[in-house]
Queue: 2 jobs
Job 1
Amino acid sequence: MLTVPDVALAPLLPILIVLAGALSSTLLGFWLPRRTLTFVNLVALVLSGAAMVTLWNSGESAFAGGLRADNAALLLGLTILVGSALTLLVSLDTAYRARVSFPEFDAMLMYAVTGCLLIAFSGDLIVMLIGLEIMSLSGYVLATLQQSRRAEEAGLKYFLLGAVGSATLIYGIAFLYGATGSLSYAGIAERASGLTPANLGILVAGALLLLAGFGFKVALAPFHQWTPDVYGGAPTSVSLFLSTVVKVAAFAGLLRVFGGALADAPGWQPVLQVLTAATLIVGNLAALFQTNFKRMLAYSAVAHTGFLALTLLGQPDLGGAALSYYLLVYTFMTAAALAIVAALQRGEEGMEISDLRGLYHRHPAYAVALAVCLASLAGLPPFAGFFGKYLAFQAAFQNGYVGLSILAALSSVAALVYYLRPGMLLFMPDRTPAREYAHGQRPATTLALAVCLVGVTVLGILPNLWYGWGANPDIWRVLAGR
Amino acid sequence: MIHLFIFLPLLGSLLMGLFPRQWRDEVAVAVSLLTLGLGVALWASGGTGLFSVPWVEALGITYSVQLSGVSLVLALVTAFMTFVAVLYGRQRVENPAVMLALVLSMETGLLGIFAARDLVLFYVFFEDALLPALLMLAMFGGPSRMRALVKFAAYTLLGSLMMLLSIIGVKWLGGSPTFALADLLQHPVTGPAQTWLYLGFLAAMAVKLPLWPMHAWLPDFHEQNHASGVPDVMGTLYKVGGYGLFTFALPLFPDASLELRPILMGLAAFTALYAAWIAFRQTDWKRLLAYAGLSHMGFVALGVFSMNETAVIGAMYLLAFQNLYTGALFLGVGMLQERVGSLDTRVGGVMTQAGALGGLTMALWFASIAVPGMAGFVGEFSVLLGTYQVSPWLAFVAGLTTIAAAAYALNAFQTTFWGGRPDGAVKVRDLRGAEWPVLALPLAAALFFGVYSAPALNLIQPAVRGVLSAIGGN
């Protein structure tokens, strides 16, 4: 006897709108120029966001809980949309120069966003996996889209390592299913507490495999090695997308699985603790020794993964709120910094840190904007990065990880040095000729930067504007649909 | 009014850009003067009560500010010296608008530090004062500023991040609903946890003070700053460590302060003597002044750590008025550099051609080495007097500093200002125009408060008594 699946359109709507954008880019690309499609997609993102806002507090679900539009999903989903919109805006100005200005770029991007949203909205492991694969496959294509050896190398590396990550993840899912007999987060959470010792071992093994798989996606050390090469080698607008949107989505998955389904399962927390510590150390120290600004930003993305991972330890009602705030702020800061690189770089390999010297005297607005981003990335108030870091520290500290918080604070000092050096070089006097690409109109990039700067400053002075939404602990207690 | 007092300088620095280029300096002077006026008005009305509203309600962070007692004195001195620095900066620095904007935005950070009565707010202002300081160094600094900059930032941030963790810990372990000082005091942390939290707090304050061995950033920072000394004035005001210890650390961690008192007092006394000794060997005026300031700060720390009423009052007095004469000396060094083109202490004979500069500098040095009748004396003497009641030997060690101070000050002054002017040296012109009030106003203030200390003491004494009686110090 077949039962009709419980299909509700309302919680699916935000995803379907984005998917419609992707499909229209695929089809209309034969007739319409790329810029038109980009505007269509921007509209789709805005509509999707509006759909999410109307779903707030509704707690709707579809497919018998396989897809859940709870508040956690909406907060993370909105962050994903913001990052995607910023990517599209930046690509309006720079895609042509980067030789990726064709409709397929937009189509792939929108498919990836669809996958990201699926992860954030997932209520069971299969939906999560489908989302992850859509996101990853589109990501591989995006990274290789530019016809250059560097991009091809980056894409291939991303593909090979990403495939290993996916395989590990799928293996982990199989283990979890074997241990609990369920694929839904709620089912796993329910059965994880009363397992026989033999099953418990399988559960722990599955959890660790999942952790490793996600580790690849979010660039936790030691699974981070692809990051600098891929972020550095891909076209800058793609790096922007990969280091913000994709990371947000992967963290959404981590939160769903480890904060929800496996919240009470033993074994994974000490391992995550070690991985976090390693990420903090490796990311911050490696960034310290970079000479290329874009690569430095790539390593800084790794370092921020460490801070973000701090929020996953312990109780999700503290950590979830911190994570949702930090991810939005992180998206603003990183997107803005990479947008400036994309606007000013002469080639896709970005710019050297020394090229930034005296930028203030050539492009004062860009220099000030970049300085604000760097200050925020370093966690200096009154910019939002401060509260992001503060919340991460607080979550770890109050969950009892005092040693790890101290390590995070110490590694922040290294972070300060590598953000400070370019930040200060910007303002130093300089007599050598300019080393950035000086031509062209960049209205869309300027708009994106303005959005980011307003976000970073306003959220820094009034964090409640966003944090107030996520601060309610109830949101994060129902991660697994309980 | 208190909010206007705190944020007016920042507002002014942001609005400066709207004015035509040739008016920007005047705007800066006007804003700094207006801020000072507001401060005096606050003082005349007897300070302000506590103003507290929730800021980030979900996190228990409040916007709590109050200016009274010690914080009012320090804020007034800050506003006064900012005005003096702006007055000098506008005629000394090339294209001064940016520098003056940074000076003003830093003033907001400093006033905020003194006004904050919420730990997270304090942290925010603490860091905010850092950004303009870094930018001043980056934009106007000397040739090897990058090294100084990184050193300065790394030390400061290391300390303040540890403090941030302590702040989180104080609220969480004590179970206070907010970060407001009043709430935290009602939910104290006890036992060994208090000592650890105190150490975290101390990390930040020891860097800022600075206390040996966390002082290494200070001489480089001053040496590489713009020669005019304007950023240095703000840098000397930057020594908020003593204030932070007094206002936050002592009341929040009374047991730990008592427990660690001998070690910390020893470190402070050593810092004072060590810095004075190093200062003796300096041939660069700015490094010399940096070490002299470090030595004074050792005194401040000694007073605060002793938890003795007289000593703490002296420390706060010294902390407030040290800014006057050390700041003015930095500006005087800037004038010297403008005239002879170097910061070396061995140029010789400047007095013969620039008598007023030499005379005022000497008078300021007298204030700095605590000659009776100057403000520095009241502070240093009280610190020694109070410390003696707690630990006579440390008072003796610190007392040696005054001898060393006389030696380094007179030595440097003599080689620069007296003796013969070398053959072929440039002609040195004397003070003129705005340079007169720039040096004379701080000197007058130092003299006034050296002779008549009641106005300041009336503010400091009750505040110190309040803190010490709450924690049961002796």
Job 2
Amino acid sequence: MKICISSTVDSINGLADGRFGRCPFYAIYDDETKEYEFVENEGAKAAQGAGIKAAQIVVDNGVDVVITGSLGPNAIRVLQAGNIKIYKMLGDKVKEQVGYYNEGKLISIDKPGASHMGIGK
Amino acid sequence: MQIAVLSGKGGTGKTTVSTNLAKLINVRYIDCDVEEPNGFIFLKPQDIKSKEVSIPVPYVDEDKCIHCKKCVDICQFNALVHTDRVILFEKLCHGCGACRAVCPTMAIVEKDRPIGKIETGYSDDMECLSGTLNVTEPMAGPIISKLKGMIDDKTTIIDCSPGSSCNVVKPLLGVDYAILVTEPTEFGLHDLKIAVELVRKMKIPFGVIINRMSQEDNATSKYCKDDNINIIGTIPFDRDIAVMYSKGELLIKDEKYKKMFTDIMSNIEEAIGCSL
């Protein structure tokens, strides 16, 4: 199983990013190898459709679970179409999120936040 | 000849200037402010004919799709996404057709999606055109392009959207002269400078009209003088104008304002003559 966390930097010691579509990196944790892989979000600088582009990256990487702050309506539609579960992050560190997930502390997100909120944060 | 009327800021009086000038010299008027067209309120054209404007959006035939994702990768607007099938976000689609062009199995066909309308009518014998973008639609470009495509080289006054976005650049393509309408406020001046930059970059000769002028000596007229910008006219800050505007009347109905617009027009003709 793969868990994807939206991240501000390409390090597990960094801060998780509350934005889904326009965060700079995704930390993708593989629970078989217990390792993180960092994927740059090419959608972050997109003029439009950042959330869609980002969701496509997540789908292409075979992710099963996304942990983030909030997502727009388009991103949520893509992730749901890809049968990816979405959870709201706790605290602010990237490396803490998988632990919270395994302990069942994370609340699932099933409603989109406002669109275009990631711009200008 | 095409004359565009624009402004960096909204609500400065573009429609007032363009409808009155168009009616005064009896030339074609075209409202390219498709998000909020209001020229027809003042010109009151008759026998309005309405035509729907659509853009072609892709439709994927799932039987033919081989899930190669080429359509998703080529889309510059992130309108397509692939999970177990291709999903279209139609409001992001610009109708460019790239997805159809790269599809190796011809699984993509295009369907027309209506985004707005174009209305044409006559105010006396004066031709009036206006585009309207449907509410919630994000893309005004295709309607503006279609409007521009409907005019020939007969003199036309083009009423633009406020700002300096694509929706202003599009109507400005190929125009002979630009009228920049502004008002003597800090915001008006700030946004006028952006509009000046735009028309200079596009190498369009232009002049400025200062609306709601209450005193001759203000920051906007000083800026124009310092920057060698031609002030082709001023419109006073006047209760009578506000009353006529609120009733949807053209100002040129009143002799004193008719004279004002006649003077503005002769300044424009002079400026165009010099720039040719």
